[in-house]
Amino acid sequence: MLTIKNLHAEINGKPVLNGIDLELKPGEVHAVMGPNGAGKSSLSKVIAGHPFYEVTKGEVEYEVNFKKRKLLEMEVDERAREGVFMSFQYPLEIPGVSNLEFLRTAFNAICKHQGAPEMDVFDFSDFVAEKRKMLGISEDLLERDINVDFSGGEKKKNEILQMAVLSPKVAFLDETDSGLDVDSLKTIADGISKVRAKDNIIVLITHYHRILAYLSPDYVHIFKDGKITKTGNKDLAFRIEQEGYKDF
Amino acid sequence: MEIENKVVEDVPHDKKEASKVLASEYQFGFVSDVESESFAKGLDEEVVKKISAIKGEPDFIRDFRLKAFATWKKMQEPTWAAVDYPPIDFQDISYYSAPKKRPKVDSLEEVDPELLRTFERLGIPLTEQKRLTGVAVEAVFDSITVGNTHQKELEDLGIIFCSFSEAVKKHPELIKKYLGMVIPMSDNFYAALNSAVFSDGSFCYIPKGVTCPIDLSTYFRINASETGQFERTLVVADEGSSVNYLEGCTAPMRDENQLHAAVVELVALEGATINYSTVQNWYSGDKDGKGGIYNFVTKRGLCKEPNSKISWTQVEAGAAITWKYPSVILRGDNSIGEFYSVALTNKKMQADTGTKMIHSGKNTRSKIVSKGISADDSKNVYRGLVKIGPGAENARNFTQCDSLLVKDKCSAITYPNIEVKNNSVILEHEATTSKISEEQIFYLQSRGISLEQGVSLLINGFCKEIFQKLPLEFSVEAVKLLELKLESSVG
Predict the structure, then answer these.
(1) B176: buried, middle or exposed (CB in 10 Å: 19+, 13-18, 0-12)?
(2) A97, A146 in Cβ contact below 8 A?
């Protein structure tokens, strides 16, 4: 359970979140929509702990394994180890570090934190192979440096691969569906629905209802000027697709 | 000045064990503290003569020194390097200082906690921490130290591995033959100075056909304040022999002597191989760069005869100013020269480093892989020369220069020079510049990877080709050293 209370945040002194209240419960899928600059990406970055954002007011309560934690007081890596995940709208390229090594380091860091046994190179390769196939990712992509010379679609798939490997409790997916062709969109949506479980929360930040057709969200929130201006069910997404944001 | 030549197990199975070996060695070395005088500041012919007399050197060494001094007097301090420092007053230096008693403290609790944290992170054993910080340690003699056992093994194979002074006395014929063969006294300002006043150093000779069974390592046994300012190393590998030679250590080395001008000469005869690895972490000064060491080193190898190979691997992580170009002269046909380097600069450090590959033999090959990491306000220069002489038929060179910038204020510059006087050669050059950004670190952290691990991934990724060339134990320490140096810059 993730409870966001009256969250205000700014970047470079410019307010981007102006009082967000949101309650996310295990098993739910939430969609966040809204015009450009409404604060959708900012919300996911603040939740993940991006260093450029400053929280000026409000709090975020994170309940995991029957423990209540103040999320905003946790370091970025600790949030991740406790099950918070954000898929990047623009995934970073990291030359020199192989994708597979990156995944295994992250996976083992989380295992260690949660007291689970770490996996060796061989077991991990098998484990990843299964997830990789599910997302139609070629083996060669694992050997390559993180996101370096990946196509747009490959980068997005790689984000979802990371989610599938790390199996987070709360996942903010920031425009994962942008820039994908129809087939890739379906593959990614299938991938996400396989990771979806009774005990995790998925927040889809999107401009399109297409992905929502696959993942049928329980709630759709409309963001504007750093605030939630309306919350509804998935029909809301269809209305927006047709009418735009002017009435919200 | 006391240097101990010591030997370390080839590839230790267990790092702790290796540390134990080191620690016990130091205890052994600790008792041989020698007290003697230091010279007043200043340098003239009399001083040079006096150094030679104190060391009881034969005439040919004294003459070598005097000739070098005469040459040096006529030379100008080089100013072409892209480093910036106030002029050095060469008359304001004492050119002979005997090992000094260090200021002793009673326990580690009296030592700068920041320094202790560094030691801890580098996994330096307690005994050695005490040694480095000058805590009084009760000297314990082991009747048989591991070092001694190896020394015996080396002797049986005919390998000579001793201090330079000892070699001058015991093996004058070898010294006479090879001293200055690769780096003539007139080579450059600092090499000439070193040739005139060198304090001590190491000598190593591997006889024909012998593969040295262990990595040879010179490790300064006395605290940094007493290490040689003007060190001299000579390694000779006779026909068909091979040796791995390690120099330096990862522990931060402090020294009251700001100027260091060492000379290292390597000679490989027919079919011989020398791998020379250095990890250097001289004190680089405080945050404003004050008090750091100026490290002006001349290192060169000569592939004198056919089918020989010399490989330099260096991890440069210290010194306020580094001026260093380990080079190879490829004279023998089919000989191979390699240079693998990681140079890290942070704070106000300045490094102007690189290599020269001088091809004169046929079918000679050289490979240069240089990785520069600059952080904070530092300046990191790669300066290289690939020179192909007219007789170097079918020579080949591959050069790769990669720079990694951490944040905005630092700089990385490469000067890859090429001179070709033969049309049958193939030269390749690759270069990249990349940057560690806060966004990249955030990306890694957002997947559960700690800052420390993230920096380690990035550094390892960038330097893996070089680290692979280092002996295992050295490479583990080198990685940790770089991580430690960069964490404060990234975090």
Answers:
(1) middle
(2) yes
A 10 A CB-CB count for B390 gives 10
pLDDT of residue B14: 41
**Residue ranges in chain A whose pLDDT is less than 70:** none
Phi, psi values for residue B196, rounded to 5°: -80, -40
Q: Say how far apart CA B49 and CA A25 lie, in whole Å.
A: 85
Residue of B52, B32, B33 whose CA lies nearest to B95: B52
Rounded distance, CA A175 to CA A206, Å? 5
CA B369, B375, B380 angle in degrees (round to 5)?
45
- What is the Cα–Cα distance from B439 to B203, expressed in whole angstroms? 49
Residue with the larger pLDDT of the pair B122 and A107: A107
**How many residues are listed for chain A in this entry?**
248
Nearest residue of A to residue B464, measured between CA atoms: A96
Phi and psi at residue B345, to the nearest 5°: -125, 140
**Residue B111 to residue B104: CA distance in whole angstroms:** 11
Of B444, B449, B461, Cβ closest to residue A96: B461
Residue A148 near chain B (CB below 8 Å): no
- Residues B188 and B79 sit within 8 Å (Cβ to Cβ): no
Which pLDDT band holds residue B55 (cuts at 50, 70, 90)? Answer: confident
Two tokens, residue A229:
């201006």
Residue B284 per-residue DSSP state: -
ipTM for the predicted complex = 0.96
Q: How confident is the model at residue B230 (pLDDT cuts 50, 70, 90)?
A: confident
Contact B410, B376 (CB under 8 A): yes
Three-state secondary structure call for residue A184: helix
φ, ψ for residue B319, nearest 5 deg: 75, 145
Mean pLDDT of chain B: 81
Taking the mean position of all CA atoms in its chain, how far away is CA B148? 24
Question: Tokens representing B342?
Answer: 């990681």
Burial classification of residue A111, based on how many CB atoms lie within 10 Å of its CB (0-12 exposed, 13-18 middle, 19 or more buried): middle
Q: Is B443 on the interface with A (CB under 8 A)?
A: yes
Residue B439 and residue A95: Cβ atoms within 8 Å?
no
pTM over 0.80: no
User: Percent helix, strand, coil in chain A (nearest 5)?
Assistant: 40, 30, 30
Binned at pLDDT 50, 70 and 90, residue B395 comes out as very high
Which structure tokens are listed for A38?
Answer: 């409404």
Q: CA-CA distance, B438 to B128, in Å (whole number)?
A: 36
Kindly state the tokens that stand for A24: 């996310």
Measured over the CA atoms of residue A46, residue A52, residue A55 and residue A61, the dihedral's sign is: positive
Q: Closest Cα to residue B2, out of B153, B315, B219, B324?
A: B219
- Residue B298's nearest CA partner among B337, B324, B329 is B324
From CA B302, how far away is CA B159, in angstroms rounded? 20
Min distance A126 CA to chain B CA atoms (Å): 20
DSSP states of A50-67: -TTEEEEEEEEEEEETTE
Check: CB of residue B373 under 8 Å from CB of residue B406.
yes
Contacts with A80 from chain B: Cβ below 8 Å: 445-449
Place of tokens 């314990």: B140
Half-sphere exposure for B284 (CA within 13 Å, toward CB): 24
